């Protein structure tokens, strides 16, 4: 859709389009309140500003909209209504060997036990091995540092999805 088409959507349809990019309700509400957007770069800047103004609970809600890296069953279930915009985000995982997939699953379990939410990484363009390396490196972060890193990764994902939304 074009930016003009997005601006002309009714509130419910626009909210649904935004939820395909990020499931934080606070972010969606803020984005709806900022419409209409004159330029795409304004939409992206507003998305980032809205994201930066959120709190821990909003970030955690956004994280819930993601499958665990490498969990194919979770990918299918959670991406059912966002499959167009999320397509290809974890494509490299499908080519990973069994050992790497097993290590990702174990790392995700350790990560979730340590931080209370799944590992969030902008997977676009990263191999399974790169994601595993990032996951292992981030396991030693403090909870506050890790939340900031995960939130920054979520912001990258959201911006990529907004760009895809306007190019489909």
TrEMBL record:
One of its GO terms (molecular function) is 2-oxo-4-hydroxy-4-carboxy-5-ureidoimidazoline decarboxylase activity. It holds the Pfam family OHCU_decarbox. Pathway: Purine metabolism; urate degradation; (S)-allantoin from urate: step 3/3. The keyword Lyase applies. This is 2-oxo-4-hydroxy-4-carboxy-5-ureidoimidazoline decarboxylase. Keywords: Decarboxylase, Lyase, Purine metabolism. PANTHER family: 2-OXO-4-HYDROXY-4-CARBOXY-5-UREIDOIMIDAZOLINE DECARBOXYLASE-RELATED. It catalyses: 5-hydroxy-2-oxo-4-ureido-2,5-dihydro-1H-imidazole-5-carboxylate + H(+) = (S)-allantoin + CO2. SUPFAM superfamilies: UraD-Like (SSF158694). It comes from the Bacteria.
